[in-house]
Design brief:
The chain is an alpha+beta fold. It has 17 helices and 20 strands. It has a seven-stranded mixed sheet with strand order 14-15-13-12-18-19-20.
């Protein structure tokens, strides 16, 4: 018997099969095999069709079952992980009204900034633990202001994972941690922050009812069964945003533990058990998967938009079809990339830079000295340095790091990237063989009593343990050079504004 897990990303739909008895991965696939397109009809916009997510989920489910010769009747339940902060709108007939405005879309930055000024830090700081920012609530306000004819038809707004759960079960529901990532959860009152919707003049009845992360959230309908190949009436037992889910996948559930990811965007997700903060903009604070009103478990999230997308861009620009080759080439260059500096911020407004859309930049490029391998190393270092810069912000907000864990995929497969972060933070990094889709599949088993949250990830497969070096002078010098370049760029851009 098996559980199936979905990770609804912006690049692809990841699908995992888990052996229910052994709690072991059977297979993981990406659908499509390439990358999904992000629509950017204007600068700083990013949209995708929710129906396209569903189409690839259906075809990928049939493919993974066929390729592994598994009868669909053997599937016991479903878990869902999804790209955070997106906005999906349905009309009264439950039809999609427009493309989803996804996580890296920056159009609502000024709306969030204006709301923060009007509401005041004292209120949003104590109640939301975040500035309203460029999140789901602000994106909905943007639709109301700029697409009134569409807004008039809105009967339901939801996050990407809520949409996928709806397509599977016919039920329109959301979660506390989902609301928190939309900046719609009041941590002080421990209820939906309807007052923010009132501030935006948005009908509070549009918010879906709340369901717990770990419970039966609806059963597969006959329509969804035919579309996906899943058996009818099996339950969807779990849903969570991709970063809380990734933390769950890595057994990051307790204060001081940090989950790191280096995909299209980069994330540090640190757990704390107090609903307080001093930093509301550069980092954000979301309810974790094990959050309850009685025991608030908060994930402090630092997000860097321009991470893997920069390395992917370099791959395309240099005609290289293999990340492993790029990583090996980069090892031929010394620490600091012979003074070549890369600022990787080319994927929209960066929260940790106060929502400035800085763009990606290459500095000190010497056409006589630098080659492709220098570009690769400088990019990996620039991305790693941005993680370290973000970790410094988190430390100032009271985060005390006990352990950093990451999955053995994307940028953490690069020795340069992983060692640079470990050496500069002076922290070991534990690398495990797991993915968000596998974590979602494991989490789907909790509702049936087979696993508890704690036992869920006890048998993780460790891949590597990276320890910091004792002499990090070269790393520190390279990082200080990068940091100086970043600060100069920020100061110059701020001055021009």
């Amino acid at each position: 018997m098996y559980y199936i897990g979905y990770d609804i990303g912006s690049s692809s739909i990841k699908i995992a099969l888990l052996n229910a008895k052994k709690n072991k991965e059977v297979a993981v696939i990406n659908e499509p095999k390439g990358e999904m397109k992000i629509e950017a009809i204007r600068t700083n916009w990013a949209e995708q069709s929710p129906d396209l997510w569903w189409e690839y989920l259906c075809s990928g489910t049939k493919r993974i079952l066929f390729e592994n010769k598994i009868n669909s009747s053997q599937i016991l339940g479903v878990g869902i992980s999804y790209q955070m902060h997106g906005l999906v709108l349905l009309d009264k007939n439950k039809k999609v009204l427009r493309n989803a405005i996804i996580w890296c879309d920056s159009r609502a930055v000024e709306i969030g900034n204006k709301a923060a000024e009007e509401i005041g830090k004292k209120k949003y700081g104590q109640h939301l633990l975040n500035s309203p920012g460029n999140f789901t609530a602000s994106k909905l306000k943007w639709v109301k202001e700029n697409e009134p004819k569409i807004y008039e038809q809105v009967a339901f707004f939801m996050l990407p994972g809520d949409f996928i759960a709806f397509k599977l079960t016919g039920e329109i529901l959301t979660t506390i941690n989902g609301l928190s990532e939309g900046i719609l959860w009041d941590y002080k009152k421990r209820e939906i922050a309807n007052w923010l919707l009132d501030h935006y003049h948005i009908d509070t009845d549009l918010t879906p009812p709340i369901v717990e992360n770990f419970q039966n959230q609806g059963n597969i309908t006959s329509v969804a069964s035919k579309a996906t190949g899943l058996p009818e009436r099996i339950p969807v037992n779990y849903r969570a945003g991709d970063q809380p889910n990734n933390a769950l996948s890595l057994n990051v559930l307790r204060p001081g533990e940090i989950a790191a990811t280096g995909g299209t965007s980069g994330v540090l997700f640190a757990v704390k058990d107090q609903a307080t903060t001093k930093e509301f903009t550069k980092v954000n604070h979301f309810a974790h998967v094990n959050y309850t009103k009685e025991n608030p478990s908060i994930g402090t999230l630092l997000c860097i938009n321009g991470v893997g997308i920069l390395y992917n861009w370099l791959k395309k620009m240099t005609g290289n079809k293999d990340y492993n080759t790029m990583n090996l080439c980069a090892t031929e260059v010394s620490i600091g990339s012979e003074n070549l500096v890369v600022l990787p911020f080319g994927n929209g407004s960066e929260r940790m830079l106060n929502n400035i859309n800085l763009g990606a930049h290459f500095y000190n490029l010497n056409l006589n000295a630098h080659s492709q391998k220098h570009l690769y190393r400088a990019a990996l270092e620039g991305i790693a340095f941005s993680f370290v810069y973000g970790a410094e912000i988190m430390k100032q907000d009271g985060i005390k790091t006990k352990v950093i864990r990451a999955g053995n995929d994307n940028l953490f497969q690069s020795k340069i990237f992983t060692e640079t972060i470990s050496n500069l933070l002076e922290q070991p990094i534990e690398i495990y063989s797991t993915t968000g889709a596998i974590g979602a599949a494991r989490a789907a088993s909790i509702n049936n009593g087979i696993n508890s949250i704690e036992s869920l990830i006890n048998n993780l497969n460790g891949v590597e343990y990276v320890e910091p070096k004792t002499n990090n002078d070269a790393y520190y010098a390279a990082y200080q050079n990068w940091k100086k370049t970043l600060i100069n760029k920020l100061n110059n851009d701020t001055y021009r504004r």
